[in-house]
Amino acid sequence: MMIKQDSREPEMQLVADLNNIDITFKREFMKVGDYEFENVLIERKEINDLCSSIIDKRIETQVDALKKSGKDCFLIVVGNLKDRKVEINENCVLGKIVSLVYKHNIKVLWCEDDFQFVFLLKNLFKKVHERLRGIK
Question: Residue 75 to residues 17, 60, 96, 120, 134: CA-CA distances in angstroms?
Fold first, then answer.
């Protein structure tokens, strides 16, 4: 499975290889999102980056760009809210997540680390591939 990955994102090929997951990442500059496969676009956020992007409102610009892409959009958060280093009330973070889901129709997934992130990518994109091909 070939997944387009933004060149500014951390290298995930080693994680996929260690997990024995059949994914190849094609690294290139992406104007919108961090990962793309078929009609799905993913924005990946480490927990501290998510918190910072809520504070400086960068998340709003990113969400608008995702929505304008016309693709099925996901936000995948990596890390635990309780481990954040950025000073922000957790209710603000959770409220923003609800807003992304309800108001902006962005699907949100949460995982603990890069190993789980790659596993999520594999399974999500496998389901996308099956749906587009009419496979049950």
Answer: 23, 13, 12, 12, 25
